[in-house]
């Protein structure tokens, strides 16, 4: 509060509560223990008075942007140079993936150099005059808008973006290249499937191998009412692509009485009542494993889709979209069951459709 005790009766509005004279406000400010020290006098930088120093800063910024471009190119090249399973020893990290290390280093350098270049540009070449922005209502009035626009134009001019073409061009180059890192990362989504989902490991002459015993099967090994899970010859567990291939090539063998088979095509593609159907449910790809011997129905345990193996494995219950694909089989000269080719249609969920 002001220490002024004189009468203010002659001052307009002086008797109203909350009103203070300009002298009183000045006195309050002078008595504040935290007086505003104001801004220190501006000191010019060496770049402001020496054009050679400004040129050195310009070249430094351009060098940082150029290094960023080279690092981005190195990031992209790392995908081609380093295989995914290559490991190298790097002290003090030890054994690390060459691909992951190179990707991390090159992308980190690319982003750091862009940031460092921008900071160095701002600290050495852009204007460093401090401006005081008085508080104002959220909605700016027209004079304020005009002031902001003028300050923006002044800032654009003082940034010397038009004058320092070397900085401008290298900055644009760095900013244009660094997003390519994100594009290349899309490679980790995997290669395009092409028509791989429409083909399996089955081919003409491939023997039907029992998944449990890993032995080829003869017709007498499959009895009426039994359910046998088989895989194509040459597909061995432990290989890197076993899970991928068995997820498409898994087959179940069931032996029916030939007179119980209702579908002519199914009978033609069988051997002495032995029929081979895909184990992959056409709903969401679960393995079909439950067999009802009396009805010749197989049941998917996930969502209870039910297929009639005596009638072309058509769907009789559940959400599956179409029948289980059948594998055409026969017996070779050595008496072993073999495939006559691949499935005639894609296996698995019906959303792949057929074509």
Automatic annotation (TrEMBL):
Region (Disordered) residue spans: 1-45
Endpoints of the signal sequence: none
Compartment(s) where it occurs, according to its Swiss-Prot or TrEMBL record: Cell membrane
The keyword Protein biosynthesis appears for this protein: no
GO CC annotations on file: plasma membrane
Rieske domain: residues covered: 248-338
Transferase as UniProt keyword: no
Annotated Basic and acidic residues bias: 19-31
Top-level lineage group: Bacteria
Keywords assigned by UniProt, alphabetized: 2Fe-2S, Cell membrane, Disulfide bond, Electron transport, Iron, Iron-sulfur, Membrane, Metal-binding, Oxidoreductase, Respiratory chain, Transmembrane, Transmembrane helix, Transport
Lipid bilayer topology: Multi-pass membrane protein
PROSITE patterns recorded: RIESKE
Annotated SUPFAM superfamilies: ISP domain
Function in brief: Iron-sulfur subunit of the cytochrome bc1 complex, an essential component of the respiratory electron transport chain required for ATP synthesis. The bc1 complex catalyzes the oxidation of menaquinol and the reduction of cytochrome c in the respiratory chain. The bc1 complex operates through a Q-cycle mechanism that couples electron transfer to generation of the proton gradient that drives ATP synthesis.
Protein family according to the UniProt entry: Belongs to the Rieske iron-sulfur protein family.
Name of the molecule in the record: Cytochrome bc1 complex Rieske iron-sulfur subunit
